Amino acid sequence: MLAETDVVIVGGGLAGLAAARRLHRAGVPWRLLEAGGRLGGRVATDVVDGYLIDRGFQVLNTAYPRLGTLLDTDRLNLGYFTSGVLVRKGDDLRRLVNPLREPTGGPGTALAGVGSLRDRLRFAALAAGCATVPTSRLLAAPETSAETALRRAGLSDAIIEELLRPFLSGVFIDRELATSSHVLAMVLRSFARGRIGLPAEGMAALPRAIADPLPADLLDLNIPVAEVAPGRVRTQAGDIRCRAVVVAVDPPAAAALLPALATVRMHSYTTYYHSAPEPPLAEPILLVDGDRREIVANTVVLSNAASTYAPAGRHLVATSVVGPTAPPEPTIRGELTRLYGRSTADWTHLTTVAVPQALPAAPPPQGRLRKPVALGEGLFVAGDHRDSPSIQGALASGWRAAGAVLEELRAS
Asked: How confident is the model at residue 142 (pLDDT cuts 50, 70, 90)?
């Protein structure tokens, strides 16, 4: 028998860590069990030949509401991306930026030639509405798919196919844009209100910073959980008696531990990392394919945003592909030559990172996004499958689950 405690948290990803932080702040005894050898779940960073290689292309949005509760983002030493996107159309690169963040880029965006001027004005109005309308109103709106919502906003096929599908497919990991319009609204809100950046020490710095205030002896690594039940968690090292259990693992693992949960389909993607002697672009901006080839979702020079991602004198390029089937690296290299408009012959392929369970699918109906976290009999669940499929969703669900635990413990 392992030591007893009030709450056992199963899973050391962002949701589990957020739950631990709230319970710790409330002074409730808890213990976290993580099956792997590190914290962070799907947010991780490896070092390959001096390069910081995140487990797939990930970024941090400063507008995520739950971040401020858990850490001071200044300590992450974020390097920021341009608030906009480059679109490859034939022989040209068209630059579109958020004029509120990049005022000098406003005239160029108006004349960018991606869709019509009316398209660009309508999309700007859509994003501005998402940024300013209260969240409750956004989530009370009739729900449909993201693609249908964009078309109902009056956007043409041209701007959807040349800009929004390639861009949003990388955000949702969903090329069909079958994701809920409520998720779309929250994504547009966060992009309009926040800045997008990378921690100087890689995305793994985020879970490290969230875990930092927690006692290390309560964070147990390499402890797989075999079974959970009301008042008990079973591991190979023995059972832990408790008053409540928070299951904060990925959806497939959560469904295995909690059979009452509905099956959640997961989206997959692959990121190719290349080293270049010179940056193919001068600024830290996302490049998408407006030529409708539908191979590459996006590509970006990470070291332009955070120079620490590459050794001195080198540059790191990340290129992401949506879907379970990853093209061979030479195919991607050929696409990069076309997209950047320059030779990639002197680039070095560092590694390819496949993430088969990157994000939970979120088709309509998602309702108000906040799915129940209390399952009854002292069992709770957290993760981005209980909220929006995002870093914010993981953090928010963990925080909510801990709040539900506190309510139940106070009532008992």
From this structure: very high
Going through 27-174 in order, the beta strands assigned E by DSSP cover 30-33, 45-48, 51-54, 60-61, 79-80, 84-89, 92-97
Sequence-distant (≥ 6) Cβ neighbours of residue 158 within 8 angstroms: 114, 115, 116, 119
- Asked if the model's pLDDT at residue 56 lies above 90, the reply is yes
- DSSP character at residue 178: -
- Give the Cα-Cα-Cα angle 88, 198, 60 (nearest 5 degrees): 90
**Domain 5-43+203-264+369-411 is in which class?**
alpha beta
45-110+266-360: CATH, from 3.40.50.450, 2.20.25.420, 3.90.660.20, 3.40.1190.20: 3.90.660.20
For position 1, what pLDDT does the model report? 45
Strand-pair partners of 235: 225, 238
How does pLDDT run across 231-263, given as a tens digit for each residue?
999 998 899 999 999 999 999 999 999 998 988
As given in the structure block, the two tokens for residue 287 are: 């490049």
How many other C-beta atoms can be found within 10 angstroms of the C-beta atom of residue 264?
19
- Rounded distance, CA 125 to CA 403, Å? 36
